[in-house]
Amino acid sequence: MARRRGRRDHDGVEPYWELAFDADGDVDTVRREELLSGVEREHVTDLLVFAHGWNNDKDDARKLCRRFFAPCARLAGAGVRLGYVGVLWPAIRFPDEPLPDADPSAAAVAAAVGGPDLDPVTRRVLDRAFPGHGETLDRISELLDERSEVASRVYEFGRQVRELVSLRETSPARHLGEDTGPGEPAMLTDDAVQVCELLAAARADTGRPELLGNLRERVWDGAYELLRQGSYYAMKRRAGAVGQLGLGPAIGLLAADVSGIRVHLIGHSFGARLVSYALRGMPADVRAVKGVTLLQGAFSHYAFAGRVPHDPSRRGALYGMQRRVDGPLVSCHSRHDDALGRLYPLASKLAGDSTTFLGLWERWGAIGYNGIRSVAGAKRVKLGQKVPAKGCVSLDAAAVVRRGGPPAGAHSDICHEELARVVFAAGRIALA
């Protein structure tokens, strides 16, 4: 079969390839072979590999790649031959979440589907993300439409969400959902009425005060948020599988095939979790990864910890993985990210945990909100300061990651030249 050259439709972002994976981390082998042969043919010295977060279709993911990569060719110095890879995996973004710089028509769609009913647009997104769960989604839709005052309906809704995000016994993602030890999110096991009230309160705190209305309205608004957060938990789990079982081995093959290739991993949101778990899936002797840049990473700030403070018997699932990077692992974080700062800790708390509401952020916080925690020797810097040459680095990017409406805040405000420069600094790519 003839190999296609890197895609040429990315406004100067070329050569460009894609690595596509299914929910279990199985790779599209044709695209993988195109990448392996193309990198050598195009004499690429530095390969930028970008994994998207919650995007509801491949076109959205490609647009995000294009926007983030846009300044890179202009930044590259003499002797640098860049190549670009978009990592595509089956993720999801609820359509009511506006994106920075979205066109007016997209903003209108977001406003139109922002209510607690399961509108047709959101239903199509969920059908794509959870194939084979049509009956479950039908019942979820009925319950949201009904908005019953009977508590048993809320409990049924909770059971339906749990069924929606359940995995088959043989799924490789079953044990890749938690970053600090085994368990199931409390939002899927605790009292559903209380969970929905908490989620509604957190959602109101992100700029939707109308959600603090009467009890019935508040509970069902919280139920819609439970559906969102439950879906995102499934995507978080899926990202771990794609990274460890898919992208990691692919990087190993690339390093073996193309001598001297320098790989730079970049991930946004759950894509940050994906590229981090790829380190665990790489052969231990691979030294091709020269830098990792995590943009608003949606996973635990203790993922790399040698000892989890609230449970000294545990360590982070990615403990020591930063040593597989021949350079630094940089976590860009922002206090303006409401998805991670307000909703993520509630959704991440595990069943059986007795943490008070005020303690949630310390115990269950995200790496993209306040950086890397409990890693010996980890450094903290601000955007514009020199990036350390190795180890874990928390970089405060709030100066540019600051725009976005409810409920996610600035979670997706990542396409800035300043952040592209962080990638170059982390990977020691020569600048023009």
Account of the protein in words:
The protein has 432 residues and is of the alpha/beta class. It folds into 2 domains: 16-92 and 243-348 and 366-427, 3-Layer(aba) Sandwich (Rossmann fold), CATH 3.40.50.1820; 104-235, no CATH class. Helix content is 40%, strand content 11%. It has 14 helices and 8 strands. The chain has helices spanning 29-41, 58-69, 72-75, 104-112, 120-129, 134-146, 151-164, 192-204, 215-257, 270-281, 338-348, 360-364, 367-370, 417-427, and strands at 16-20, 46-51, 82-88, 262-268, 289-295, 328-333, 379-382, 391-396. Strands 1-3-2-4-5-6-8-7 form an 8-stranded parallel β-sheet, with helices on both faces. The longest helix is centred in the middle third of the chain and has 43 residues, at 215-257. 52% of the residues are buried. Residues 1-5, 104-114 and 206-212 have low confidence and may be disordered. Keywords: Kinase, Transferase. One of its GO terms (molecular function) is kinase activity. This is Serine-threonine protein kinase. InterPro entries: AB_hydrolase_fold.
